[in-house]
Amino acid sequence: MKQSLLILALLLFFSNGTAQDAQIPSSKYVCPPCDLPCDEDEHDEPGKCSYCNMTLIKKDEVKTVAFYLQDRVEVLDFAGPMEVLAYAGFNVFTVSATEDPIKSQGILKVLPDYTIENAPKADILAFFGGNASSAAKNEKVIEWVQNQENVEYYFSVCTGAFILAEAGILDGKTATTFHNSLDNLQEQYPKINVKKNVRFVDNGQVVTTAGISAGIDGALHLVAKLRGLNEAKRIAFTMEYDNWRLGNGLILTKDNPYHRVKPIPELTAYEGIYEYKDGSEIDVKLNGRDGGLYAIIKEIPYPIYHENEDVFSDIGNDPIYFKRNESGAIIGYTLSQEGTLYKRL
Question: What residues does the DJ-1/PfpI domain cover (predicted)?
C-alpha cells in the first residue's frame, strides 16, 4: 500500500512539473512596427528582421500607447514623442473624443484611429498641449481617463498636464508643464507640486514634460526606463536629436535608467586607433559633450554603447568585444566572442 502511494505521489509530482513547464511562456521576438508584411512575423531568437533589417525586440517589451489628441493640438507635442516611441517598437494609436478629423495647429489633419468609446486598452496613456483645456473641460474625456484600467504609465507634454490634473492623476505628485502655464497649473490644482526649469518630471508611473520639444526628452526617458538607456541613445542618434542630455529632468523614483552609466575616466581606456574590417582604420574617441564613445569611420562619428564589462554595441545593436592582454591593457576588439581580432594600433 505504501509503495503504491509513493508511486502515485511521484507520478503526480512529475505530471505537475511537466504541466508547469508547459505553462512557462517562451520568449518570442518581433519586428518593430514598420507597416510592412514582417509586422506580423514572430521569431524564436533575437537578431535582425530578414525583410526590413530592423533589430528584433522581445514581444513582451512591445507596449501599446494611446495618444489622446484634441483639435488644435500642437504638432511637435505629439509628433516628436510619436517618432521616439515608434522607433522603440511600441504600437502607437490615436484617440479623440469623436471620430471627426483633428486639425493640428490649423495645418495638419489627423484622422483618429479610435474614439473614447471604442479605444482598446493601452499600457501608456499620453496627452499633449495645444487647446488642452477643451479636453480637460470635457467630462466624458476625463471620465474615460479615470476609467482606464491597469495603465502602466501616464505621459504628458506641455499643457497636456492639465488633462491629467483634471483627472486627479497628478494629485500629490510633482509635475511640470509649458513655461507660460506653470503658475496656472499650480493655482488651478493646488494638490500638485509644480516645478519650474525642468525638461521633465518622473514620478515613477507618471512622466510630465515642459513644452513642445521637451516631449522628445520625456519620451526618450520613457524608452530608457522601459527598453534600456542604450536603446534610447540609439533612437536619439537616429533622429539626430543632439539636444538630448542624459537625465536632464527631475527623477523622483528609484527606477533611474542613468545610474549605471560608465564613468568617463574608465571609457578613456578604450580610446585609440584600431584596425577596421575593410582594411582601413577607425578612431575611437570620447565625446566630451555627451560623455560617450564614438567610432570615427571615414570621418563620420558613430556612437558605441557600453553594455557590460568590455562589451559594447553599435548603432545596429551588434556586439563589440574589446580584448585585453595579461596586464589589462586594451589590445583590440572582435565582432563576435571568438572572432577575428582587429588590433589596436
Answer: 63-223
